[in-house]
TrEMBL record:
Name assigned to this protein: Putative glutaredoxin-like protein
Lineage: Bacteria, Bacillati, Actinomycetota, Actinomycetes, Micromonosporales
PANTHER family the record matches: GLUTAREDOXIN, GLUTAREDOXIN-LIKE PROTEIN NRDH
Record domain Glutaredoxin: where: 3-57
Record-level Gene Ontology MF annotations: electron transfer activity
InterPro entries on file: GlrX_actino, Glutaredoxin, Grx-like_ET, Thioredoxin-like_sf, Thioredoxin_CS
GO annotation (BP), single: cell redox homeostasis
Pfam families named among the record's database cross-references: Glutaredoxin (PF00462)
Source species: Mangrovihabitans endophyticus
Amino acid sequence: MLTMYSTPWCGYCHRLKSQMDREGINYDVVDIEQDPAAAEFVMGVNGGNQTVPTLRFRDGSALTNPSIVQVKQHLATLSG
């Protein structure tokens, strides 16, 4: 499963969500302002910063503020 860590006001998050929707990529969204454990995860993979969007993939890997091309490439490496 793919998880997007986000905030309601993040423009980059809204753009990536729209792009993933268009590409048919399924994902769950977690608001780091409402989930302290999610905020801790995001800070853990981003040097202490709450940078969103941060995506966590089923293998535990993460990408921060990726392009849709990077998301698709990473998903392809996981399915191969």
